[in-house]
Amino acid sequence: MRTLITGGRVIDPASGLDANLDLLIEDGKIVRMDQSVPGSGFQVPRSGSRVADEKRGEKGAKNAESASNNVDRVMDATGLIVCPGLIDMHVHLRQPGREDKETIATGTLAAARGGFTAVCCMPNTDPVNDTRSVTEFILDTAKREGAVHVYPVGAITKGLKGEELAEIGELFEAGCVAISDDGRPLMNGELMRRAMEYAGMFDLPVIPHCEDLHLSGRGVVHEGLVSTELGLGGIPSASEAVMVSRDLLLAELTGARLHIAHVSAAESVRLIREAKARGIPVSCEVTPHHFTLTEEGARRFDTNAKMNPPLRSEADRQALLDGLRDGTIDVIATDHAPHTSQEKEQEFDLAPFGVIGLETALALTLTTLVLPGVLSLKQAIAKMTSEPARLLKLQKGRIAEGADADLTILDPNREWAVDATRFASKSRNTPFHGWQLKGGAVATLVAGKVVWEA
Amino acid sequence: MGLAHKDLLGMQELTVEEIRLILDTAESMKEVASRDIKKVPALRGKTLINLFYEPSTRTRTSFEIAGKWLSADVVNVSTSSSSVAKGESLKDTGLTLQAMHPDIVVLRHPASGAAELLARQLTASVINAGDGAHEHPTQALLDLFTIREKKGRLEGLKAAIIGDIAHSRVARSNIRGMQKMGMEVRVAGPRTMLPRFIDRLGVEVFTDLERAIADVDVIMMLRLQIERQQAGLFPTLREYSRLFGLTLERLKGAKSDVLIMHPGPINRGVEIAPDVADGPYSLILNQVENGVAVRMALLYLLAGGGQAGQSG
Question: What is the 3-state secondary structure (H, E, C) of chain B?
């Protein structure tokens, strides 16, 4: 199978490449990258499909140069952007255990639709991914049913109970790319220290969900004006920042690689910025909902605006934008957290925390960050490709001859309305239903194979 | 003019004119209570369901009497929180009730926002009788009615609300209602019971009771939930009472014609001394009495003869 992508603007943040190039793909790898020649014949007229394709031997390919002579498919990417396949290092696929919310099949299809070619799934499944057998189950299922690559994240402690370390060595051997207590903050600082020391033996990043459960208490939204007005329990920013602070100190103590999940508060950004300046091995991520929305989202008790950490104030959101701009925040990740409608259609206090994000993340990044100039297109792509690949040591997230042909073709000008009823995800819990967004993926290729196209 | 709403979820959504309409209507309703035969046919053939997920004596009884005096059929559904935990969601309860074609559902619920959630399920009018720490609009309306009755006006008056502001729906509804009617509002209580951003609601914040009540026209004491002690919000009842209990001694620094209110039920000797609760300035029982009239007015405006009541 040979595929040719012609005429696209190829952006590869890892190498700094930004040029109009044709990419020839064979056996799942990028085998040739050539200067795009306008009118060379690679380009075919746009048909109904966003990415026009053409079979070998049909009209239009006649004049193509030798490379295209025995190409199975030509994809015309004129006016589009070709970038490394997006990597989401923070999703919940819910399988095993909560297949009513999401499965590896549906979650990875949602990923493909959103332009992602790889996702890292968090260990809070049932059973918890704290043993080799669960990791292998996830990897096997992903291989059989998954649309994109799946990299499991293992548990820090057995059953995420925060009591004893999981078999981190075996999780690493089985294929886990990081360890995390996501959703169940590790309150025991001593155990966190040991986990970091232990993970350091395998150079595995530790991904804490930073939250002091005592400070959060029964809080369900950010402690701010909205919690005050609505009489909802508030989660102060300090709940996150106190634990960010603890974990930064422990990273300094242990030298382990720390990656802080879903940063939401200005205080956290400040602490991480200072820690980076002092050389502490820390990285962090932000979600599209945190850099797009504020506490105001919960104003009408909309449970699709209930997530943990909560949507915070506009000042916090601005701090997140600053953190993205100055590089304090390395990665954009979704924290895709599917929940069923009946779980979300409850009293605000009772509804579960979490929103889905795979099918809106790229468009929100383009609309909220790139369009207003917070990030350049290349910077934004880096935070969704080369940066997560670097942190997780994946041989992914780059475009080069010989590299895996995991590619996303995106249309920065495509305007579309979010319609959750048409999501590939099993769940519908997005706060962005009905939003008008600009830009998004039009085709996703995993190992040279088109797994989704508009 | 009528109420341009299907529901009454909070003081937040009411305009000044609507509040005035409710209070004016309540005045004529109050007259019914003084009759020998306390019954008018305004809501004959209408069904009112009291759906209470929290224990309540005065609010539930008040709605029940208000409905009955207006000739509505009143059904009380008491659902303890434990049976909620057992299964049926509020949404399903709402759909079940909907199938029985009630005209008004009065909801009391421990979760903020529950009334809004139910209102989305029902074509019937939903009256919020207290949702979590969010709103308790009928309490605020009866408080405004009581103040207006005693003082002859609302505009320009000063009120101090004292106690656990953070967990109080009464405080939130009254702050909104009083401010809309041109009153100045202060809050006072232990710092642990004042929301961090309460000042952004436009209230003056005090942690000293005597300073807070010094020159106000109305003192509204809130009930202290004893279980807040375990949550670490105050050390002991003794200390709470010493710092924030309203006593005759403390009242000496207040205006001579100050009104003292409390939504009840009161903790005698904790937030309010018995001789204050039973004293000449106390309006606690007037509040209860007026509660029936205000609720009659609301029921009437939402489901009865209020012209816009059914189209809104």
Answer: CCCCCCCECCHHHCCHHHHHHHHHHHHHHHHHHCCCCCCCCCCCCCEEEEEECCCCCHHHHHHHHHHHHCCCEEEEEECCHHHHHHCCCHHHHHHHHHCCCCCEEEEEECCCCHHHHHHHHCCCEEEEEEECCCECHHHHHHHHHHHHHHHCCCCCCEEEEECCCCCCHHHHHHHHHHHHCCCEEEEECCHHHCCCCHHHHCCEEECCHHHHHCCCCEEEECCCCHHHHCCCCCCCHHHHHHHHCECHHHHCCCCCCCEEECCCCCCECCCECHHHHCCCCECHHHHHHHHHHHHHHHHHHHHCCCCCCCCC
